TrEMBL record, chains A, B:
This is Winged helix-turn-helix transcriptional regulator. Keywords: DNA-binding, Transcription, Transcription regulation. PANTHER family: REGULATORY PROTEIN ARSR (PTHR33154:SF15), TRANSCRIPTIONAL REGULATOR, ARSR FAMILY (PTHR33154). One of its GO terms (molecular function) is DNA binding.
Length: 109, 109
DNA sequence: ATGATTAATCGTAATATTGCAATATAAAGT
DNA sequence: ACTTTATATTGCAATATTACGATTAATCAT
């Protein structure tokens, strides 16, 4: 108990859940928006930009990285983060499928 | 501590996080897919379809309903669930914005 | 080497989530 | 009224998440 029964679901469902869970936090949404907006990757700027402590930001970045949504490159003293295209596209396609499936349907009830 | 600092983020960021958090579980993804696939709304069928206990399914449905993603109509003894178009479209647009913003960018690092 | 800067990790407290057995509620049929 | 059928609620145990202070690790400049 207290543990998601991943073995019951398809690989696709589990992957999508992992990716969405990574995004499903306002801080991580804000981080992704910053990363996308500032074409050039950021790092410690996020600590100033958002009002969260450095360890907290670092942890959120780690979760986004674990889900594969972003990648980090060491750039001297700092770390440069950016979107990881393959996983980002995987997410985009999964969501497209979701929305497309509903488009054709009428409301019931 | 242990509590998300919602006051730090925009209303949009918080709303998107709530919607995504509701979807970000394999069981709830499976439920949404079933609801979308079976144009006609389902309810207890989900208990048979997925391999989870009735209270567990009921709880997942409640979370989806709380986020506004689905709506339930009492139909005699059973309850008929279906997508709630306004919120569903809100989510679709938010996600579109996300993906569109990245489209234009090149990879850095 | 020393100090400054940047980011990750550890430890911990507060809270949230997941799943289910047991029970409660509510409508329909008999 | 009583039983059946369908769903919701309650209570609880196991685990996960969120946030941050304190510390560590790693790179750069002097």
């Amino acid at each position: 108990m207290g543990l998601t029964k991943t073995e019951i679901f398809t690989e696709e469902q589990n992957r999508l859940a992992v990716m969405l869970k990574a995004i499903a936090h306002p801080a991580r949404i804000a981080i992704l928006q910053e990363i996308i907006k500032s074409n050039t990757c950021i790092c410690g700027d996020l600590v100033d930009e958002l009002g969260l402590a450095q360890p907290t930001i670092s942890q959120h970045l780690k979760e986004l990285k674990n889900a594969g949504l972003i990648q980090g490159t060491i750039e001297g003293v700092s770390v440069c983060y950016c979107i990881n295209p393959p996983v980002w596209n995987e997410l985009r396609e999964q969501m497209s499928g979701f929305f497309a499936a509903y488009d054709l349907k009428a409301t019931c009830c």
